[in-house]
């Protein structure tokens, strides 16, 4: 019954926010003045900035078609799904407290037990320039993850992140983060979280994340960004799914929010799982610590932007019966806005943001190319199988894409991805594949 009422409220609120965009203006009342903004969602705030309330959201509808390595039999499959369907509620309380709640109706965030929340957090900003955030949120790791899913250049983020998908995912746990802009040229953050997986005594797995970015140039269209990242978690005596299973840019091989490729989708296991033929995916004595280091680089001048990231992971074995699992990945990307606009950059969060179209009739057009490379070294794999040979399993991806920012609310994207693999293939023997995916996004 509660779920039914919540769904009804959410639908009504969503309708209100969308309808509100048809109006514009300012409303002033007696006593504390109130300003109502209706450009992009619904925002109500007091003029003294002590209180505010904003209702918005994002809807991302995707269609993908793929073949070869992306399917188990190599034949073409397709998928239609909502990648994200967020209702977002945020604002200010008593000037120094901020709150944000994002609920995902596509069920790609969270789960049925803990709720499908992408974020549910409270922040305190009274110790300027320090921000303290508490609750459920994605930990800070990497430039592309820091950039909102609304404004990332590629439809899916780089495949190096998939080598360690826990590093910047809340996994339905809770955490605390301290972040700050330093000397108007750097951004620092550190967080500790207790995740929703337990050791044998019932203690939640603890995770530490740290990120440091130096950005002496951080104006829109004039950016130089260099950063380092670290994430560590303790897995001793913990039962968890240790498989490394990248989707390689084709979310439709396995996703929620609609129809995917079903049993023919090939989300291959590159490593982990304590030997791929053992079936023992949740051994409690296989691994001890899990450590990931990362590096970030970005440069932007006018409509041109370059960015790259590197990731190195080591899942340390807990006894001599097992071997460490190591993984490395990187990507390099070049993007250019044909209509001349620059990507917005924000030092607070050390991230890129949207492209704001200057031409209201034709919008802004962006093209990009990205190269991804990943490698997984798992010496627990001691025998060849039909789909996985011993040695390092590798993949490289070439992605070309175009983004049309029709206006500040609507974005249309199309990506083509070519994947090639080594020492890993599908059940049909394919070690390459093609993926085309398109997205229509509406943000309010």
Automatic annotation (TrEMBL):
Positions in coiled-coil regions: none
Secretion signal, residue range per the UniProt entry: 1-24
Keyword Signal: yes
Keywords from the UniProt entry: Signal
SUPFAM superfamilies found in the cross-reference section: Porins
Gene3D superfamilies: Porin
InterPro entries attached to this UniProt entry: Porin_dom_sf, Porin_O/P
Protein's recorded name: Porin
Organism encoding this protein: Pseudomonas spelaei
